[in-house]
Structures are given as structure tokens and as C-alpha cells.
Amino acid sequence: MIQLRHVPDDLHRRLKAQAALEGLSLSDYLVREVRRIAERPTLAELRVRLARRAPVAVPEPPARAVRAEREAR
């Protein structure tokens, strides 16, 4: 059980309206949203993932590639 206190009235109304638009109770809507938040990796997890990736070698400097693309238009 999670209890959230001191939720401003305007935020409560907005969340309740969003839940109603999706045909959900406020509780079901918030559980779904909290689940989405929990499933997203944290910044620390993302940094670890990125550190494990192999560097990418590009055939030309990005600025040159962008310039060439612009000039081709």
C-alpha cells in the first residue's frame, strides 16, 4: 500500500480527469503510471549500459556529414 499526501487539489482533479478519460479508476490509473515509471531505467542504469557499449567509428566527422546533407538539398 502506498499513500500519497499533500497532493494539490488541481493536480488531483487533473489526474482524476485523465483516469476517467481512459475509463479507469484513479487508483488503477496511478498504479499503471507508477508501473511505467518503475520500468524505466534510472540515469545510473543508462550510464552503465552506455559504458558497456562499444564505441562507434564514423566514416567522416559529423559536422562534415551535416554540411554535405544541407548542400545536397
The overall pLDDT, averaged over residues, is: 96
Shape: elongated
How many domain regions?
Answer: 1
For the report, how would you describe the main beta sheet? none
Distance between the termini: 58 Å
Q: Any idea what the radius of gyration is?
A: 22 Å
**Assembly category:** single chain
Please write the string of helix (H) and strand (E) elements.
Answer: HHHH
Q: What's the number of extended β-strand segments?
A: 0
Number of helical segments with 4 or more residues: 4
Overall structural class, as computed from helix and strand content, comes to mainly alpha
Low-confidence stretches: none
Helix content: 55-70%
Sheet-strand content, in percent, reads: under 5%
Index terms:
mainly alpha; 73 residues; 4 helices
